[in-house]
Amino acid sequence: MLISLIVPSRGRPDQLRAFLESVRQTAGDISNLEVILVRDEEDDTRCPEVESLSITQVLGPSGRTMGELNLAGIQMARGRWIF
């Protein structure tokens, strides 16, 4: 059963890397996990690569509400469970 984690992010590369590393280290079965990273098109923060972790990026215009960011992630999610 695939689990999708929606992660809106902007300009916080250190916190993003720490979060992704924590997910990788603590997930029981990383093969059943996907991360949907939602970012603004203008945000030049690079998505860190994390070993064995599936990360999909969704880009969009700045100024979106948290609801709009979450919806953009949900539309790309493939998981049965979405967080």
Largest sheet: 4 strands, parallel
Question: Counting H and I runs of at least 4 residues, what is the number of helices?
Answer: 2
Oligomeric status of the shown chains?
single chain
Strand content: 25-35%
Kindly state the number of beta strands. 4
Structural class: alpha/beta
Write the layout of secondary structure elements.
Blueprint: E1 3-8, H1 13-26, E2 33-40, E3 54-60, H2 66-76, E4 81-82
Parallel strand pairs: 1-2, 1-4, 2-3
Report on this structure.
This protein is 30% helix and 28% strand. It is of the alpha/beta class and 83 residues long. The protein has a 4-stranded parallel sheet, with helices on one face. Strand 1, helix 1 and strand 2 form a beta-alpha-beta unit. The protein is globular, with a radius of gyration of 12 Å. The mean pLDDT is 91.
Defining traits:
alpha/beta; four-stranded parallel sheet
Write a brief structural summary:
The chain has 83 residues and is α/β, with parallel strands linked by helices. The protein has two helices and four strands, in the order βαββαβ.
